[in-house]
Amino acid sequence: MDEVEVVVAPSQRATLRVGDVFLKVDGDPVHADLEVRAMALAPIPTPAVLWREPPVLAIAAVPGKALGVLGAPSDASPAAWAAAGAAIRRLHDAPLPPWQGPRLDDVAADLAGECAWLLANGVLPAEVVRRNQEIAAGALRPWRPAFIHGDLQITHVFVDGDEVTGVIDWSEAAPGDAMYDLATLTLGHEERLDDLLAGYGGADRDVIRAWWSLRSLVASRWLIEHGFDPDAPGCEFDVLRSRMQEDGGAPPDSPDRRV
């Protein structure tokens, strides 16, 4: 029997790997329902659904390797990044999935609440939080809905050479802001944005930069509370500090966390 590997296991759900099969265990059947529906609608390569027996969804591993990981340089070629951009463009141009996506008011409320928590707990210097909150406001504008993946982390896009072989983890797919997907994929890999856009085409770079700040601010508490480290090199806190450097000043050191 193949060894069972725990891929990720936050409190709400877990993903296990057994050989070439991934088992996604989730007590909320809505997540699996949406993931299966989204993969069926997406016009790009997705994992094959092998079987489903709630609360477990079994999907096949996709060939190739992830485009990269957060916190380390991507060794994928510029052509592979461009291929990822072209695939994302096909997704964004596809008909919208028939369910509700994120609402602008809810995104704005999440940003305000998470920034208040970061400041109250001294997780980051106040000037880093406040400056990034100002930058993040650039994403808070009406957007034309596109079919977005919704959690397009760099580890969710697989390539073989210069070809996209699969995009995984579709439970957040919905109508939403196309720039959010582009920002999520290049978070911590800002230097690969030009390569991505070579395949994607035109995009609003200022809004992408705003989403880098917004996603990093909003994700930080969840990451800390679920055992992940947003302060690891190249991760969310480095993304936030880099915005301070772009303003022409060296960012202050982070204080010890009181969380």
TrEMBL record:
Highest taxon, organism lineage: Bacteria
A Pfam family it matches: APH
UniProt cross-references to InterPro entries, sorted A to Z: AGP_Transferase, Aminoglycoside_PTrfase, Kinase-like_dom_sf
Domain Aminoglycoside phosphotransferase: 39-211
The name this protein goes by in its record: Phosphotransferase family protein
Native source organism of the sequence: Promicromonospora aerolata
Lineage, broadest ranks: Bacteria, Bacillati, Actinomycetota, Actinomycetes, Micrococcales
